[in-house]
Amino acid sequence: MVGILIADGSSPYISPGIQIGLTSKVNFFMSAQITFGYLSYSGPPPFGVTLGLRVYKIQENWKRYRYADLQIWPFLGGIGIGKMLDKDGNKYTRFKTGVGAYGYATYDYCKDLEIAKHNFGFIGTFPILNILGGDYSLN
Length: 139
Hints:
The protein is mainly β. It has one helix at residues 2-5; strands at residues 7-8, 10-23, 28-40, 47-58, 61-72, 77-85, 91-100, 103-110, 118-125, 137-138. Strands 2-3-4-5-6-7-8-9 form an eight-stranded antiparallel barrel.
């Protein structure tokens, strides 16, 4: 973590992630996602676009949703907004926040998604820096 604080340069990055959690109705969920973003030591805070797939266990069934978010992660916490889509094409607005670095606690709120309005989880990520010729370095 100290290396991030004494870094310089900038870089596009990709970051795969795996998340597990519970809804406020105590339904288990899992997500797999990938973020495409930009990180700069002296420029804007890190930001990105995240694409993912989430499955909720509802009784004995699994319900699947795709999602896309825009996010900004200025320090060790961040926020995002996006959409979740079910298999029928219904769209649900999604707000998310989290705190941490490579592993972090998350909360997201899905408007109008009754089975999972409030979601609490933990995600592990693996950022891959300096793709497409970036020069970000940890000193």
